[in-house]
Amino acid sequence: MKIFRLLTPLLLAIVAVLCFAPAAWAFCGFYVAKADAKLYNKASQVVIARDGNRTVLTMANDFQGEVKDFAIVVPVPTVLKKEQVRVAQPQIIERLDAFSAPRLVEYFDPDPCAPIFFGNLLTQSGVGGDGGKAGSISIDRSLGVTVEASFNVGEYDIVILSAKESGGLETWLRSNGYKIPQGAKQLLQPYIRSSMKFFVAKVNLDKFEQSGYQLLRPLQISYQSPKFMLPIRLGMLNATTEQDLIVYILSPEGGAEITNYRTVKIPTDANIPVYVKNEFNEFYKSLFQTAYTKEGKRVGFLEYAWDMGSCDPCSADPLTPDELKEAGVFWLINNNSSSNVPVFPNFGIPFVSSNVFISRLHVRYTRDTFPEDLIFLQTANREFFQGRYILQYPFQGELKCQAGKEYKRSLPKRFEQEAQTLAKLTNWDIQDIRKKMKLSVGNLTYSLWESFLSWF
Description:
26% strand, five-stranded antiparallel sheet, alpha+beta
């Protein structure tokens, strides 16, 4: 107890210092909302855990329809064996999404007439498989298709194919009961020329019924390859509009980026009107669309880059070592994993960093804007970044001192700057923004803001 009393002033001092540190390190805000993948009607999510040439790829299944019609075809660099394929729990992708989503935070202005104390600062803020037996290699010579392996994993029947020409592969898939979209032949051809194999899955209806699951679980595959890429072209066959893809890349080194398209950071650290708290989802969708259009659409956005040992502000707790392993992280050291490092609640101040770094990349694509598959690069860059949007509430008490009077006079200019920022980020009408701001301002500043709006 005595030790705790001695440490408390030190911890308060550390927090106070970090509150004034660069934005990339400590934000000291209160998290209030997040913009997760549920915002988008057609968002696919993929988790890639990679160290060296080894990759563990987890694919969330957002299939809608009868499970008997489900089929997935994924180009892979090598023939996969049964022990390299497993089913994962869907909650693990939801956890990654929640942890890394763009977020809304709140700050509250202190009393400008009161001295500053530390207390005031604190109030601001190898994968396994199961079931089935490996099948022997078979060849359909007339179509040029070779079944390199076949097995069952969970509720899925898996075959690994190689092919000599895309027409034969498309015919084989259809004749064997795989319901694939029209036009697959054209998009399969580049992968055949690159000597890639094809991971093909459909649902085993009997096993699915026995499993008791209501939805299809994510599939997870593990393989060795110098190619660090994600095939997205086959996913365009069903697309009638733009599609969103969110990729969570986990690395023991640092951040990841796309090499064959530009990777840019999503606009961040913007002070916006407080009424957006009730419209955050619409705000972020408009912000993303505006940035996407401004950048020419052929671009991937970095929405989050952070060490998994901490978060600030936290929209969800960092993943535990067990959760990270479920997500495919295979390099954790059981007895010395710094992922168990304690973090101060709300402040995200870890004692040491972990050996898992997460990058969240968001791509909106069509066949025209992204004609190539995504190629990634691991870097040693461990710079922290997040999409963060700030609500700053004015002080509502009495302001009798000179500093208070100056603070009061400064508010209309601040409000107008927030309105201009919001209009720029979202392309929303500035007059509509000003009207909504007028309704959301508190009693203290209402008359000031009302007179300021009359100038426009």
